[in-house]
Write a structure and sequence with these properties.
single chain; 193 residues; alpha/beta; 6 helices; globular
Length: 193
C-alpha cells in the first residue's frame, strides 16, 4: 500500500480554488448549502448548484451524490460530490470502527471515491468531513479518511491524485501524524478484523 502514498497530498487552503476534476463537499442531508466548506462550495459554484440540488431530494448520512460543478467548471472542476458525514455522538474511547459514526464516515469516503471513479475523475479533493460543527474527533476522522483512501488507491488506479484540503496547519498536522504512524494503527486495524 505504501507505493500509493505519492498519490495522496495534504494542502492547507481553500478547496474551491483547487484545480481538480472533482471536489468533495462536506454536505448536510438537505444538500441545500450551509456553513463552512458547504457554504463556500455553494457560493463558488453559483446559484445553479442550489437549483440543481433542490431536484435531488436530499441525501442520507453516509452516502454521497454527484452534481455538475457549475461555476467551478471555469477552473477545470467537472463534478461536485456531496458527501453527508455524521454528527459525532459516539464515545471516542471506543475502538476505531466500532461506532455507527465511524461506519457512516467511512461510507462517505468510499461513496465519494466510487462516484469520482465512475465519472472518470483522475483528481479529487476532500475537505475534513464531519470534523467542524459535526464534532467528529479529528484524529479518528483522519485515520478513517486516510485508511479508506489508501485502501481504494490500492485496489483501483483510475484516480491518480487525492488531495486532502485542510482548513488550518493544525488540521493538516493531524493527518500528517496519522500518515507518519500508519504502520502502528494499520497493524491494530488488521488485528481487529
Amino acid at each position: 500500500m505504501d507505493e500509493h502514498l505519492d498519490r495522496i497530498e495534504i494542502v492547507v487552503g481553500d478547496i474551491t480554488l483547487l484545480r481538480v476534476e472533482a471536489v468533495v463537499n462536506a454536505a448536510n442531508e438537505s444538500l441545500l448549502g450551509g456553513g463552512g466548506v458547504d457554504g463556500a462550495i455553494h457560493r463558488a459554484a453559483g446559484p445553479g448548484l442550489l437549483e440543481h440540488c433542490r431536484t435531488l431530494g436530499g441525501c442520507p448520512t453516509g452516502l454521497a451524490k454527484i452534481t455538475p460543478a457549475f461555476d467551478l467548471e471555469e477552473q477545470g472542476v467537472k463534478h461536485i460530490i456531496h458527501a453527508v458525514g455524521p454528527v459525532w455522538r459516539g464515545d471516542d474511547s471506543q475502538k476505531l470502527g466500532y461506532t455507527l459514526e465511524d461506519t457512516f464516515l467511512a461510507s462517505c469516503y468510499h461513496q465519494s471515491l466510487g462516484l469520482a471513479a465512475e465519472h472518470s475523475c483522475k483528481t479529487v479533493a476532500f475537505p475534513n468531513i464531519s470534523t467542524g460543527v459535526y464534532r467528529f474527533p479529528k484524529p479518528r476522522a483522519a485515520k478513517i479518511a486516510f485508511g479508506h483512501i489508501l485502501g481504494f488507491l490500492d485496489k483501483y488506479d483510475m484516480i491518480e491524485n487525492v488531495i486532502l484540503c485542510c482548513f488550518s496547519d493544525a488540521d493538516a498536522q493531524v493527518i500528517q501524524d496519522v500518515i507518519d504512524t500508519r504502520e502502528d494503527w494499520m497493524f491494530n486495524r488488521k488485528r481487529m478484523g
